Amino acid sequence: MTPASILRQRIKHCPPGRPGWREFENICIEALRFLFVPPLHEPHIQPRSYSGIDRRDAVFPNRNIGSSNTWGQLYTELAARMILFEFKNYDSEEIGKEETNQTRNYLTAPMGRLAIMCCNKIPDRAAHIKRNTIFSEERKVILFLTRDHFLEMLAIKERGDDPSDLIMDLVERFYLQHE
Description:
This protein is 48% helix and 14% strand. By secondary structure, the protein is α/β, with parallel strands linked by helices. The longest helix has 16 residues, at 21-36.
């Protein structure tokens, strides 16, 4: 089996909710490394703010300033110096506006205006409305990356194409649906 197919199987079979929350986070980090390092750099896992109050799940440094690749474009467009990834592996509860707002709060000016919530299911309508409000007020983009997106990006990588094209597609779809 290829590394991509192993990751696909692990993502598909990760249990939702508390039993699989740590496994989901670990699989997602492995997949993100496989997909995006390089051109992104090795992530900082569970970094805390100086006060210790804020703990982000994973932050991938983006040093692609001036580059013509997807990450360079996102660096220029959204000042995306550090790419924040938050992981939500919920069972019966919805991924809603509170989780979206929490992610927004982690985006500080030095990090930039791009965050990606990796979710085991599609966030609810309130989460989508909240991210539109966040963009309208602060120009911050929060993407929802589902299991299906991970599976698609792994297939893209396996074909020899650039999986970050899907990230750009999600940004563009967000811009198109924003109101």
